[in-house]
Amino acid sequence: MGDSPDIYLVFTDLDGTLLDHYSYSFKPARPLLHHLQRKGIPVIPVSSKTRAELEPLMLQLGEAGPFIVENGAAVCIPEGYFARQPDNTRTIDGCWVRALAEPRGHWTALLESLVAEFPGAFATFSQMGTRGIAAATGLDPEQAERANRREFSEPVRWLGDEGERALFIARLEESGARVQAGGRFLAVSGTLDKGEAVNWLCAQYAQRGRVAATVALGDSDNDIPMLEAADTAVLVRSPERDYPAVARSAGVIYTHGSGPVGWAEGISRWLRAQGLKD
Ligand SMILES: [Mg+2]
After folding, report:
1. 20 to 30 Å CA-CA from 151: which of 3, 10, 50, 253?
2. Which structural domain, as residue segments, surrounds residue 161?
3. Residue 93 catalytic?
4. pLDDT digits over 247-258, tens only?
């Protein structure tokens, strides 16, 4: 043990996991969030959201530690969170940022190069602007503006037919993009996933103490790389689809409740297994 304390880490998806699928409330998770905070265990969001969307949410959650944005495209660590700035990070507006994907401009340029082949078949967030994003997503103008402050990826709304959509995705992938389908939008970014960002951040903690246990919680297939990267995977029931199809069978917790109810159930079971529940 020595003087370096054991480190426990919680990585969590947001929509449909810590946040209710419909209301975006995390109220049922609050008592356990407070419990984790008292124990000094960080809750690290891993989300498709942007830094501009996540910062206000971190305040609401009462969390002051790192978070992972744009589906694993970058890790943001508040400046001074660790005693020393991690290698390969840049200080941007009070955060040490580890970028794992090319900047947004790379992806918008790639998309522009496909306009001639797929005329009128897609609209990017950049083209849609705040008003268009608000209309397409139901976000209010301020939320739409935050969603549009992307740094490492570009969401695309597909307007063409299904057959052409597969060809469009293939073209993007040929050019080194990774395309993740989520609802009405395709997220275009680098060949990365939530798992790489989680592994990088775990390695930063491991330089500062013994990482005793990690847990990841998610409700959909884009969470699988993150769920495979942690010691324990909590698969949160979704009201809309099956549990994420993880390959692992050991160290898996399936929740009965969905959203933050399932989140609390999973964290509770994980804490008990670690001997950390009062
Ligand atoms: Mg989700």
Report:
1. 10
2. 104-189
3. no
4. 999 999 999 999
